[in-house]
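Researcher: I'd like a structural prediction for the single chain below. Treat it as a standalone chain; there are no partners to consider.
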Amino acid sequence: MAEAVFHPPRRKRRVFESYESPFPVDVGGKDFRICQAEILNNNVIVRNPEDIEQLYNKGYFGKGILSRSRPVYSISDPSLVTKWQGANRNMPIIASRKYQCHVQWAKSILQEQGFDDCSVTKILENYTKPLELPVLEEDGAEPTGSSFNRMGPNTENTELPRQSSTDTGNVVAPSPANQNEGYKKTCLEGDPAFDPVAICGSKEQDQGDLKDIAEVSCQKDGFLVRSGCKVKESTEQRSCEMIKSKECAPEYVLVQEEEEGSLCPEDDSAHVQENLLKKEKLVCRRNPFRIFEYLQLSLEEAFFLVYALGCLSIYYGEEPLTILKLWEVFSEVKPDFKTTYMAYHYFRSKGWVPKVGLKYGTDLLLYRKGPPFYHASYSVIAELVDDNFEGSLRRPLSWKSLSGLNRTTVNASKELMLCYLIRPSDMTEKEMSTPECMKRIKVQELIVSRWVSSRERSEQDEL
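Model: Treating it as a single chain, here is the predicted structure.
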């Protein structure tokens, strides 16, 4: 049998971040914090931005639901942000076409709640009207008016590819119509009790007379978002504070709109159309459909943070779940959870960063330090066996399937590893019902490699 040779991982060429820590745990204990997560549709998600930053930056746990990996989703268009250098950076800048898409999404949500077309139109017209918000420039100057103007060619909005958020519980919260003149200024104050980004438990909406509605709550996928208004003394001062606050940024956006104006028109109509230049401006509006970035943890990552590191608390409803309850719930959600978690726990404790290996047909992918720095070195298949390497294998491999899986792995510059979790023959199912069973589990790795006889023979001849 040929001896397995360890090949160093391939380092990525372009790395734009620094390595902070292998785990989100402060060794000294001064800055230690317990993050909070919740179970949604058999998934574990983290909503708090500080917890998201803590878990991903230190150990690369989880994945942003609207991003490729790192949770850096932003509604703002980078090309428009670069174009409008004088606009406030704390408010997203989007194109008019994209803003209309958000309005259509909000319209569909209201229609699903039973509102008629007339009421929906009235609500959205009052909600999306231009706002008299002072927008601060980079140098601190405060321009008068509610929009920036610029003359220039027509530029189309370049949208970044993003995933759909309808399956993750993201909800829209359009504000209701109000017939009072002071409604526009009132809505700018923002009631802390009805924070638009605060998500509560699912409730049925009481649909009454539209004039008597003080707020509209939109229910979708078991979550509820409320948006409300509250009158305060200083409207302008509160508006400035909300603009500077990052938490309120998703509610207010700067929309690049275009209006046609003639410059030096001539009598001939053809020349008039040629001399029509499009005037671009930024108008501050409320965002009727707000999309939030969550951090989604795999079941193995979530349990490791709770059981091994003790830096995460997982809630179902309003009650936190115990370690034994999580072990039981995760095993019901994923029948092979115990096997995959034991492998995850083993490789994490050895310094590797395991991630889900579904796209390569395996259980885990092993990274050195983290995905931003190196490509994955190994694709791992985990199996739970007894002392004689026998048992009900999760995926019995034939020579044909093993050869195909190995070829797929090698073509991706990785190596296929079989991880056997060996449990004693006298271990009962009762012992397996708690995570303490891992104390008696032994691990053996086997690297699968393709042996080429001609290559081995030529190497021997050279020696």
